[in-house]
Amino acid sequence: MRIATRAGRTVLVSPDSATVVDLAKASEGAFGPDPRQVFDAWEELVSWYGAATVDFVAGDRYEFSELEAPSPDPRQVFAIGLNYRDHADESGLTYPEKPTVFTKFLGSFAGPAGDLALAGETVDWEAELVVVIGKPTRYVAAEDAWSHVAGLTVGQDFSERTFQLTGPAPQFSLGKSFVGFAPQGPWLVTPDELPDPDRLSITCTVNGETVQSGSTDQLIFPVSTLISHLSFVLELSPGDVIFTGTPSGVGGARKPPWFLREGDVVETTIEGIGTMRHVCVKAQ
């Protein structure tokens, strides 16, 4: 199953991604339209979808620019730093013994296509797999964690490096939370749609040039470990969002550094899920 958010309403996405169907209308009011309500009833939705016949042929054609983050109003947002060894290496930092966690504030959420307003002269890219939780999760073992996942989507952890690293205490959460700095999409894909949800290629291009190319099987702390670790600190709620970290290739680690400029086009792709496309523009 694939779901997306369009005009604030949850929609079902056809298998070929050509059309969408409003979930509330398709389910005759049983689910949605509010995305948070959909995640709160996720297990019931999955059961309904397995037995339903959705008429995607009569669905709506759409533009990517109409879509929003699949879980646009989560109760909690988690982001993981230094979760690929090659990214830790390029950053000159030691590998973490436990997940390094910060947040991206909700005001930074955006959809899979549109403009990215450059908040400074050192805006960087970070392609990431994003996980959305599907049911209340507390004290879950790693081997059971995938059963708590609603689905996966593509994300970018855009970062204004100067703001992020200004001390004496770095401002990771704030420096990564300017408007539009947490785009996600184009839709949420349930794990059963993927041959191996722990092994997905992830790439980022800038103006057609590949700047990041990795695989999620290179995560230091895989999805299951992250969910288990977080659940032993606090309860995860349906719809909660986890940015899982980025592979090597970020602009700030290059010599010389390479940061985004007005007119640059950033495309972010994860195998089996889809592609996001953002055009860099001057901040107002």
From TrEMBL:
Keyword Metal-binding included in the entry's annotation: yes
Superkingdom per UniProt: Bacteria
Molecular-function annotations in GO: hydrolase activity; isomerase activity; metal ion binding
Alphabetical list of Pfam families matching this protein: FAA_hydrolase
Entry-linked InterPro entries: FAH (IPR051121), Fumarylacetoacetase-like_C (IPR011234), Fumarylacetoacetase_C_sf (IPR036663)
GO biological process, one term: carboxylic acid metabolic process
Keywords for this protein: Hydrolase, Metal-binding
All copies of domain Fumarylacetoacetase-like C-terminal, residue ranges: 77-278
Family listed: Belongs to the FAH family.
Protein name per Swiss-Prot or TrEMBL: Fumarylacetoacetate hydrolase family protein
